[in-house]
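Problem 12. The chain below contains 367 residues. Write out its predicted structure in token notation.
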Amino acid sequence: MRILHLTKQTSLFSLLFWLMAIAPASARQLRVAIASNSSINLATSTPGIISNERGQKLGDLQPLQAVVANVNNDRIAVGKTQVTQLWVKPQSGGFVWIGDRWYRGSVRVIATKQQLLAINHVDLEQYLYSVLGSEMSPTFPAEALKAQAVAARTYALYRSQSTGNKPFDLDSTEASQVYRGLAGESNTTQAAVNDTLGQIMTYQDKPILAAFHSSSGGHTENVEDIWSSRVSYLRGVPDYDLGSPGYEWTQPFTTEQLSQILEVQQIRSISPDRISPFGSVLSLKIDGDTTKILPGRQVRTALKLRSLRFTISPTPTGYLFAGRGYGHAVGMSQWGAYYLAERGQKYPSILAHYYQGVQLSKIDNQP
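Solution.
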């Protein structure tokens, strides 16, 4: 096995000791895809073991010394050993180093399509320690952090119940929830998770789709106007995000930029084609050498806009998009939660405002 000494990371070693003392009461495990590459560095903070898919030991890992796993066709090569899957498990409550950061739990690596996929098997509550600090600032009021903890826990369970044949439940990006391992943790995020241990929101005894976003720009959206089908608990409600960093924004474009991005030449006009009851642009009409009507979500992605809440004004060189909010505007507004918490609202009240008619429940301790 090729050994890499993690000299640049040894300063993190002192941080690991106090983190190791924090153990959740839950036994529910999540599978989170955390890295995909043709080559992945693997290490542990304490003595660790590498084993194959049958649990047979392949070798030992010394603390803070990494080995390199490479893809070789549909197999994983670690030194002279080749396997279809491998596990990295730290001993004595240690952590796993994958790519460029530390993670709790253990890691399974599989080979797929000339890539290695690293999947973190981690306790739900420990996972939330990181998600909370990755999705919301750890400096937010405690009640806002608790509301986020319940929403993130609910969302994780909702997603994990519909994974099908996938080898993982969630990924570590905004497509699921942002997860950065130990890098996302802080004392405040750990406290918010521990103070809401096992609490989720349910509707008809099932975890809800607990969508959340940064800020809506004054009013959240009905889910069916932004995504697909109607859900009774995701209704548009007044938001309390006035004054938040993303409440208002502008983004200028030249006509040439828009022509290239939207693939319409000789643009003469751009205007909303369909607008939601609360002001989100659901489709956009572009008139030029051809006329296109594009879904608002496609336009937002292509132009990298903060939200769908925008107006369009012509400028001498192109068009100015002036908008409000940051995100899809469905479910809980994080900045709305911030200001409600600042007003003295407790997390159950914050959640009840953004998720209509749900119950605050507690999951059992079974995986």
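Discussion. The mean pLDDT is 91. Students who got a different answer should revisit the alignment rule from Section 12.3.
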